[in-house]
Amino acid sequence: MALLKNKITPTFTLDWYIKWFSSVIILIGMVLTSNQIYPLNLMFSMVGSIGWLVVALIWHDRSIMIINASAIMIMSNGLVQYFINN
Questions:
Q1: Are the CB atoms for 58 and 21 separated by under 8 Å?
Q2: CA–CA separation, 48 vs 36, rounded Å?
Q3: Please, are residues 57 and 41 in contact by the beta-carbon 8 Å criterion?
Q4: Which of 2, 28, 50, 68 has fewest C-beta within 10 Å?
Q5: Can you state the percent helix, strand and coil of the chain, rounding each to 5?
Q6: Greatest CA span in the chain, whole angstroms?
Q7: Which residues, at least 6 apart from 81, have a Cβ–Cβ distance to it below 8 Å?
Q8: What percent of the chain clears pLDDT 70, i.e. is strictly above it?
Q9: Are 28 and 72 contacting, i.e. CB atoms less than 8 angstroms apart?
Q10: CA-CA distance, 68 to 51, in Å (whole number)?
Q11: Cα angle 67-68-71, degrees, rounded to a multiple of 5
């Protein structure tokens, strides 16, 4: 079956640790967002996106770079707006 191919992604490398840490941090950011806990949700999500941007740079993956760089800019804008208005 095509779905049961052998895994080719290396494990326990620097990028492996960063991507899993960042994924957990982004999930925490999502939980905070769903519970309307501002600006902590933006901070967690931004840290996770920064981690994924680092992984994208290690992998030379432009699509992941673009989505995470955009996410960082959007969340930075949200943080600036939050602190300006409060």
A1: no
A2: 18
A3: no
A4: 2
A5: 80, 0, 20
A6: 56
A7: none
A8: 93
A9: no
A10: 9
A11: 90
Whether the CB-CB separation of 83 and 51 falls below 8 Å is answered with no
- Give the C-alpha distances (Å, rounded to integers) separating 84 from 22, 70, 81: 27, 21, 5
pLDDT band at 4 (very low <50, low <70, confident <90, very high): low
pLDDT level of residue 9 (50, 70, 90 thresholds)? confident
Which amino acid, residue 64? I
Tens-place pLDDT, residues 70-83: 999 999 999 999 99
Task: Give the pLDDT confidence score for residue 3 in this predicted structure.
Answer: 65
At 29, list the tokens. Answer: 């950011």
Residues 15, 59: contact at Cβ < 8 Å?
yes
Q: Each residue of 22-34: pLDDT tens digit?
A: 999 999 999 999 9
